Amino acid sequence: TIEDSKVSLHHCRMSANVATGGGAKGSALAAFAGATPGVDLLVVNNLVVQSDAIDASGPDANLCAIWLATEAQDMTLASKLVNNTIAGNSDRAISTSEFASGPSTSTLTLDVQNCILWSNGTQLQPSIKPDAGAGDVTPAVTYTDSEQSFTGVGNFTANPYFVGGTDFHLLGGSPCLQAGLDSYYTDASSTDPSILNLDLDAEERFLGPIDMGAYEMP
Question: How many other CB atoms are found less than 10 A from the CB of residue 58?
Answer without folding.
Answer: 10
